[in-house]
Amino acid sequence: MGWASRYIELLKAGETVSFRPRGDSMTPLVKSGQLVTVAPVDPATLQKGDIVLCNVVGHQYLHLVTAIDGDRIQIGNNRGHINGWTSARQIHGKLLAVEH
After folding, report:
1. Which sign, positive or negative, has the C-alpha torsion 22, 97, 89, 74?
2. What is the pLDDT of residues 40-94, one digit of tens each?
3. How many C-beta neighbours within 10 Å does residue 82 have?
4. pLDDT of residue 100
């Protein structure tokens, strides 16, 4: 269980979720504590630059899609750090909105 497990379960059930992620790795796109809305997504529709809720090597992130290679999707933060590659089935939702 990680910080986003309950949101991931709701997304898997087809629900849209809102929550306030913590941390500065996505600033200024998403600032710590801002209310975000994430909806289920078809990974085939993802593009570089999308922000997704995902699992990468046992960790949960609300981070950027930095590259796509077939069914593999590279995830990184907004400070240039690459978290790693994950499979399309580990992408649970896409950011729809950030409350400013």
Report:
1. negative
2. 999 999 999 999 999 999 999 999 999 999 999 999 999 999 999 999 999 999 9
3. 14
4. 81
Distance CA 83, CA 95 (A): 18
Question: Which CATH number is correct for 5-98, 2.10.109.10, 3.30.750.24, 3.30.430.20, 3.40.50.1010?
Answer: 2.10.109.10
* All structural domains of the chain with their residue ranges: 5-98
Contact residues for 9 (Cβ-Cβ < 8 A; gap 6+)? none
